[in-house]
Amino acid sequence: MPKQDRAIRTRRTILVAAASVFEEHGFQAATITDILNAAGVTKGALYFHFQSKEDLAYGVMAAQGRHMGVVPPRACKAQEVIDTVLLQTYRLQKDPMVRAGVRLAMDQHASELDRGTSFQDWGKGMTLLLDAAKEQGELLPHVVPSDTADLVVGAYAGVQSMSQAVSGYTDLNHRTSVLLRHIMPNVVQSSVLTTLDLAPERGAAIYAEIQALMEAEELAGASA
């Protein structure tokens, strides 16, 4: 195996191990020794890629952002907002890296970390979608996209945190759908509202859609 490929695989192994440890113990209680044991790598290999526990945490948080995936563009941007939230819901239930990144962002004991970046990045993405929705006439006149984006991100953070505590995310689909059913009527035009799909199971369908698109791209690249 080429050195570069081996280094990429080692870095990935360390991040997956760190995600597992951070998800289970939180940032403060997690130790480098725990992560080394979970990864099965040497201390030298770990420190080649990550300089500290904080560096590892930022690596996990960045990776969970990439793992969230990007919803394929929708003609209706309000639906794209909804799909972004529902895809995150599915990822939280299925992807340990996403769960670990969210736990780190929500961990009030992790005072050493800049936890606000995750929320700000998601808020910026939501604002762009809502700006596009407003340009297309999908939003009610009073809606300020940046304010609504912050509301959606903050409310969702609370809902997912409650779901994690109460059911280990097993009821997050339902809770997310309820949240969206309460928010969207105050955000979008009634003519748009009737077209929106807020079904709890939609997140899984979006994930399958993304996987199919990725596989098609890989096949196209292989045959080129």
Strand portion: under 5%
In whole angstroms, the N-to-C terminal distance is 25 Å
What fold name goes in the CATH topology slot of the largest domain?
A: Tetracycline Repressor, domain 2
Question: How many E strands?
Answer: 0
Number of helices: 11
Give the helix proportion (percent range).
over 70%
* Average pLDDT taken over every residue: 89
What gross morphology would you assign? Answer: globular
Number of domains: 2
CATH class group of the largest domain: Mainly Alpha
Assigned CATH superfamily of the largest domain = Tetracycline Repressor, domain 2
**Main β-sheet, in a few words?**
none
Which value, in Å, is the CA radius of gyration? Answer: 19 Å
- Unreliable runs: none
Q: Per CATH, which architecture of the largest domain?
A: Orthogonal Bundle
Order of helices and strands: HHHHHHHHHHH
* SSE class: mainly alpha
SSE layout and pairing:
Layout: H1 3-29, H2 32-39, H3 43-49, H4 53-67, H5 77-94, H6 96-106, H7 116-135, H8 145-167, H9 172-183, H10 190-193, H11 202-223
Helix pairs in contact: 1-2, 1-4, 1-6, 4-6, 5-6, 5-7, 5-9, 5-11, 7-8, 8-9
How would you characterize the overall build of this protein?
- The protein is mainly alpha-helical and 224 residues long.
- The protein has two domains: 3-64, Orthogonal Bundle (Arc Repressor Mutant, subunit A); 65-223, Orthogonal Bundle (Tetracycline Repressor, domain 2).
- It contains eleven helices and no strands.
- The protein has helices spanning 3-29, 32-39, 43-49, 53-67, 77-94, 96-106, 116-135, 145-167, 172-183, 190-193, 202-223.
- Helix 1 (3-29) crosses helix 6 and helix 5 runs antiparallel to helix 9.
- It is globular.
- The model has no long low-confidence stretch (mean pLDDT 89).
